[in-house]
Amino acid sequence: MSHVTEYDRKPVFSQYHRADMETIKSIKENGIEKLLGEVKNFRANEEMNRFIPEQARLAVSWVRLAKNEKLDVHVHPISSLYIICEGEAILLGDGV
């Protein structure tokens, strides 16, 4: 009897380009449009979403602001983690 584990399978490799992903530039919060820069939601991409377990309750987005572009103040109704790769950010809130 043969037992195949996930380590015995050929790895899946896929390459995705940000330019091919849907872009969100604003949201409405309490009826007011809030500018977000350029947001790419990984879950919105069907192929990338396959790698994010549904039970993980994880949302991953790539956000880009142009030089000197500022993000409108807005609210995240969930806990959030930010990784700043270039530039700086001022985060408001209670840190919860």
TrEMBL record:
It comes from the Bacteria. This is Cupin. It comes from Serratia marcescens.
